[in-house]
Amino acid sequence: MAGALLSFSATAIAVRELAPALVLFDILAARAAAGVAIVGLVALSRRRPVPARRVPLHLARNLVHWGGNYAWSLGVTLLPLAVVFALEFTTPAWVTLLAVLILRERLTASRLAAVVLGFLGVLVVLRPGLAALQPASLVVLGSAVLFALTAVATKALTRTESVLSILFWMNLIQLPLNLAAGRLFPAVPAVAFEGRHGLALAAVCVAGLTSHWCLTSAYRRGDAILVMPLDFLRIPLIALLGWRLYGEPLDPWLFLGAGLIVGGIVWNLAAEARRRPLAPVPRRA
């Protein structure tokens, strides 16, 4: 979990540093290319094939995930980092709602509480009607919905596909999408690409994979009721980093809203643990 916390935070900071020198689509293309190379080498070294048995579902999942990735990355460049992370943590609430609507799962009291507290937390973070409500906030909230749809599709894919196969095809499908979007919507970078940007680009490529490898490994070795609350430490960690690196204010409303979001998720996790052993919580890849 320490590796996941550091990797997710490093990805956000690296995207923020790279944005003036590279178009976002080019940053995401580089990350996808690194993913294809690294996951492909792992598959070869382990002699594990990565077939795509359900191509339509792979395509649908990755179109949605591609949109979510772009929206999240755009939010990182426009909003305080802690706000982005707090809004991203509404994804489990959206997953719960979508699982009831799409997968016909049962809506229990604890699941309903997680959804309601998640939405209340969003209202506290964004404070509709005040200056904190910006179009960029709605973009990041939209990314959380897209990540939730991705999680539902991932849950369906894991019935027939390996994690290695899902990761490989995710990067392989999204690489040409990012390259094409970068050519269709060209933009002139604000600053020249320098050596420090090279380090940030390497961080995006590496941390983009290590974050999810670390998180998946943590869920494999520990119960979700213990692991997921540790993941929430990303909010205070990125808030401190944003304050130290970019002078972003430590907003008490943000922490109150994040507390409501986190409280609903932990409540639901505890209730699920009492009902049956927990499977790993779906997260974005």
From TrEMBL:
It is found in: Membrane. InterPro entries: EamA_dom (IPR000620), EmrE-like (IPR037185). It comes from the Bacteria. The keyword Oxidoreductase does not apply. One of its GO terms (cellular component) is membrane. Residues 3-126, 137-268 form the EamA domain. It is a multi-pass membrane protein. Keywords: Membrane, Transmembrane, Transmembrane helix. The chain crosses the membrane at residues 24-43, 78-103, 112-130, 136-154, 166-185, 197-215, 227-246, 252-270. It holds the Pfam family EamA. Belongs to the drug/metabolite transporter (DMT) superfamily. 10 TMS drug/metabolite exporter (DME) (TC 2.A.7.3) family. This is Permease. It comes from Methylobacterium variabile.
